[in-house]
Design a protein that fits this description.
single chain, mainly alpha, 0% strand
Amino acid sequence: MAVSDAQRRASEKYRKKSIKQITTRFYPAEAALWEWLSAQPNKQGYIKRLIREDMDRRR
C-alpha cells in the first residue's frame, strides 16, 4: 500500500510533536555495560523497566 505525501507529512509532524528520543554512547571503559545491554532481547523494554523500578523505589 502506497503512502501519500500528505500521510507522510502528517506522520512526521506527529513524531516531531509527540515522540521523545535519547541517544546513549558507551565508551571502551563501559564495555561491560554495552555487552550486558546487547544481550537483552528487548533493549527498549529493559531500559524502561529499569526506569520504572527506580521510580517505584523512590516513591
